[in-house]
From TrEMBL:
Coiled-coil stretches noted in the UniProt entry, renumbered to this chain: 92-126
Binding site for ATP: 222-229
Protein name: KIF25 protein
Keywords, ordered alphabetically: ATP-binding, Coiled coil, Cytoplasm, Cytoskeleton, Motor protein, Nucleotide-binding
Gene: Kif25
GO CC terms of this entry: microtubule cytoskeleton
Record keyword Translocase present: no
Domain of life (superkingdom): Eukaryota
GO molecular function annotations of the record: ATP binding; microtubule binding; microtubule motor activity
UniProt entry tagged with the keyword Cytoplasm: yes
GO biological process, one term: microtubule-based movement
Domain Kinesin motor: 126-525
Region ranges (Disordered): 387-414
Organism: Elachura formosa (spotted wren-babbler)
Length: 542
């Protein structure tokens, strides 16, 4: 204001105008600067944003590419799996088809095998030997009075083993004795753990031969206490000779074979048939009919004799034959017969059996002329049976006259006409008496007589098998009642199975070796037969 003082109004106004102009200029330059700065900043931000977006989109592209690859790979995998699945399906179909073919072929082969089975058995010879080694049992320890503790312990030591399914190994070294280390070969060897079931499974195929017209014999051989009765019948009841029917899994060969025979008959056999049973005991070279009844219908043991018929077959006239309809009827009958058995306890075993038990099942089939033969599966058998039938038929008429009333009541009542033919086959099941020697049993007097009869009949059996082995013209069946009785199911084309029973303890070493020797000799019969058949085939070829 001092500067303005003394100036004119115009001057002042001019001054003011210049001043405001100046300010205006100043303000606009600041705005311009600010504007520039903002513009610059914005540009930078935009640039950053742009590059960020670029990165983002690149990243997105990359990730989506990876995803795409993954999806593609997955799709490809699925396609491959689908293809594989299809291949599998085709393969499964092929397999199914070939399985069906194989099954069909198997069925055919099974039929063929069945037909070949009997031929094979014939070629292999008709005698086979199985050997069963029973477990060590508590009574194996009781060696007797005059024997030291030490020897007693040795006595119960195991010396006989099943080395494998076909080999028995006997291994023993005793002070003062030559050591034993010997093997024996048989068709089948069972160790102490094998069940009654397993034993029978190997016996059962033999029974099919019965229906093909062959006689079959199954016999248990071994010393007293070695398990013959256990194997053939089953465990015996305490203080009773009958065997227990309750425990089915424990049943032995005789009841099982009967069941199997009835099963086979109901499945396979053409025509009408019936099954008759006889139970006899061979004691001191005498045959006792255990099913015979007195005039009051009460059972009593009657002596019978065995003779040879005109056709060269063995026959026991007047022998009681009971017709049975099923296995349980049969078991009751056998048990009844067993009550009659004569036994004599020896030192070996309280229930030692001193006689041979022979249970015989006779299967008779009646077929009417035109049908006969055609219903049997293989022609050879039917031809053979046709031949057989023509000569067994007249025998029937004689039989029905000479046998007891129980036989007359059997279905033989069917009128015999020209057209009707009859075939008989026989299954003989034998529980032999103990094979131990006299010294072992420690018996005297009457029991000694028993023992020597047993030894004689068993050596007669060995002689018969030996004569068959050597193909001798004369087979000494008639040297004992036992072999005479068994003639038809031991010789000829009959099938024989010897079941050797062995006690494993050292105490029984001598008897076990004797039994194994018997079995080995019996098997040589088989080898003899093989040779014979081969020669036959060759000479036929010429
Ligand atoms: P054997 O008839 O040869 O004289 P047993 O069959 O009476 O002999 O057998 C003698 C004893 O041994 C019997 O008490 C019997 O139950 C038993 N036994 C035999 N074999 C066997 C076995 N494999 N398993 C179990 N016990 C057996
Ligand atoms: Mg016995």
């Amino acid at each position: 204001y001092q500067r303005l003082a003394g100036r004119s109004t115009n001057e002042v106004l001019e001054l003011y105008a210049a001043r405001s102009q100046q300010r205006k200029l100043q303000r606009s330059s600041v705005v311009t600067q600010l504007h520039e700065a903002i513009k610059k900043r914005l540009k930078q931000d935009l640039k950053n944003l742009h590059s960020f977006v670029l990165d983002l989109s690149k990243d997105f592209q990359r990730q989506s590419k990876t995803c795409l690859y993954q999806v593609l790979a997955a799709v490809q995998g699925i396609q491959l799996q689908n293809e594989a699945m299809q291949i599998f399906q085709i393969k499964a179909f092929d397999l199914e088809q070939s399985l069906q073919e194989v099954t069909e072929r198997y069925e055919k082969e099974k039929q063929k095998r069945k037909a070949l089975y009997n031929n094979l058995i014939e070629l292999r010879g008709n005698i086979r030997v199985h050997c069963r080694i029973r477990p060590l049992l508590p009574f194996d320890d009781s060696a007797g009075h005059s024997i030291s503790q030490d020897r007693q312990r040795n006595f119960s030591e195991k010396v006989a083993y099943a080395a494998d399914d076909e080999t028995v190994l006997v291994k023993c070294s005793r002070p003062g004795h030559a050591s034993v280390n010997k093997t024996f070969q048989f068709e089948r060897v069972y160790n102490d753990l094998e069940s009654q079931d397993a034993i029978f499974a190997d016996v059962a195929p033999l029974l099919t031969s019965l229906l093909d017209g062959y006689n079959v014999c199954i016999m248990a051989y071994g010393q007293t206490g070695s398990g013959k009765t256990y194997t053939m019948l089953g465990p015996q009841l305490e203080g009773n000779l009958a065997f227990s029917i309750e425990e089915e899994s424990e049943l032995g060969i005789i009841p099982r074979a009967t069941q199997e025979v009835f099963r086979l008959i109901s499945e396979k056999l053409p025509g009408s048939y019936w099954v008759e049973v006889s139970v006899v005991e061979v004691y001191n070279n005498e045959i006792f009919d255990l099913l015979a009844k007195d005039s009051y219908g009460k059972e009593f043991g009657v002596k019978r004799d065995v003779l040879t018929t005109r056709e060269g077959k063995s026959d026991v006239p007047l022998l009681t034959q009971e017709t049975v309809e099923n296995a349980s009827e049969f078991l009751q009958l056998v048990n009844k017969g067993l009550q009659m058995r004569v036994t004599h306890p020896t030192l070996v075993h309280a229930h030692s059996s001193r006689s041979h038990l022979v249970v015989t099942l006779t299967i008779t089939t009646v077929v009417f002329g035109d049908n006969f033969g055609t219903l049997w599966e293989d022609e050879q058998t039917s031809q053979r049976l046709n031949k057989e039938a023509s000569y067994t038929f007249p025998q029937k008429t004689r039989d029905s006259k000479s046998t007891s009333s129980s036989r007359a009541a059997s279905p033989v009542q069917l009128e015999a006409t020209e057209k009707m033919k009859q075939v008989k086959t026989r299954l003989q099941l034998v529980d032999l008496a103990g094979s131990e020697c006299v010294g072992m049993s420690g018996v005297t007097g009457a029991a000694l007589r028993e023992t020597s009869f047993i030894n004689r009949s068993l050596s007669a059996l060995a002689d018969v098998l030996g004569a068959i082995a050597e193909q001798r013209a004369h087979i000494p069946y008639r040297n004992s009642k036992l072999t005479h009785l068994l003639q038809d199911s031991v010789g000829g084309d009959a099938k024989l199975l010897v079941m050797l029973c062995i006690s494993p303890g050292q105490k029984y070493l001598t008897e076990s070796m004797q039994s194994l020797g018997f079995g080995t000799r019996a098997r040589q019969v088989q080898r003899g037969q093989v040779k014979k058949k081969k020669i036959q085939v060759l000479s036929k070829g010429k």
